[in-house]
Design brief:
It is a single chain. The chain is of the alpha/beta class and 237 residues long. 39% of the residues lie in helices and 15% in strands. The strands form two sheets. The chain has a four-stranded parallel β-sheet with strand order 1-6-5-2. It has two domains: 30 residues, no CATH class; 167 residues, Rossmann fold. It contains ten helices and six strands, in the order αααβαααβααβαββαβ. Bound molecules: zinc ion (2 copies). The site of one zinc ion has 8 residues, from α2. Belongs to the ComF/GntX family. Pfam families: DZR_2.
Length: 237
């Protein structure tokens, strides 16, 4: 056996959607999951945060119409539901880093139009706390962002947006407390202000509080436009 075969035998590659062991002809997904690939989010969606909307006459989702986000525009590519939800769980909690490579490449494919439109000079992954990173071995957002950086030859910087402390569980807090909690969680280095248009990459967009907190801080150091790209997004109302 050559070394690649030995590695496959020792660590069989698994389907990024259903976790079944792949045969030699399958790369990231098993044949069955390849056939049931979910469709990316289409119209109508919120012009600001990209959440899918129910009515075509709606321009913005409830959240964005109530308060304008600090970022310029966000896009989530797929709904946060299976099989992508399960795949993200594997990436975050079951050490399936290779899923992130696949998911990052999906972002390159389905996010290409958005990235070409917004034309960012640099990519920042949403950071996780270093304690979490040392337990997990990697930051999942960085794994995704690295593929996007490679796919479009846009530099990736992991040293300008940092996570300061572990945040309290957001669910237990009021809207106002949530905002404050999030703002305290991130540090943005002044040097980030040398960029005009930046792309923030994360795995999922739910309330938008993470993206908003970082975008606000980036704008405070002089960044003009903060764009956000996530593989998954929750439903809007
Ligand atoms: Zn599968
Ligand atoms: Zn919105």
């Amino acid at each position: 056996m050559n070394s690649k075969k030995i590695l496959d035998w020792l660590y069989p590659r698994r389907c990024a959607f259903c976790d079944e062991v792949l045969d030699g002809t399958e790369k990231y997904l098993c044949h069955s999951c390849q056939r049931s690939m979910p469709k990316p989010i289409g119209e109508p969606n919120c012009k600001k945060c990209g959440k899918p909307l129910l009515h075509t006459e709606q321009e913005y989702c409830y959240d964005c119409s109530r308060q304008e986000p600090a970022f310029t525009r966000a896009k989530g590519l797929f709904l946060y539901e299976d099989p992508l939800k399960e795949s993200l769980m594997g990436l975050k909690f079951r050490e399936r880093k290779e899923y992130g490579v696949f998911l990052g490449r999906l972002m390159v494919l389905y996010g290409a139009e958005f990235i070409r439109q917004v034309h960012p000079q640099v990519i920042f992954p949403v950071p996780i706390h270093r304690k979490k990173k040392s337990v997990r071995g990697y930051n999942q957002a960085e794994v995704l962002a690295r593929e996007i950086s490679r796919g479009f030859s846009i530099p990736l910087r992991t040293d300008l947006v940092l996570r300061k402390k572990s945040t309290k569980a957001q669910k237990e807090l009021s809207r106002k407390e949530r905002k404050k909690n999030m703002e305290q969680a991130f540090v943005v280095k002044k040097e980030a202000g040398v960029y005009r248009d930046v792309l923030l990459v994360d795995d999922i967009y739910t309330t938008g509080s993470t993206a908003n907190a970082i975008a606000g801080k980036l704008r405070a150091v002089g960044v003009k436009n903060v764009y956000v790209l996530t593989i998954c997004i929750g439903k809007g109302i």
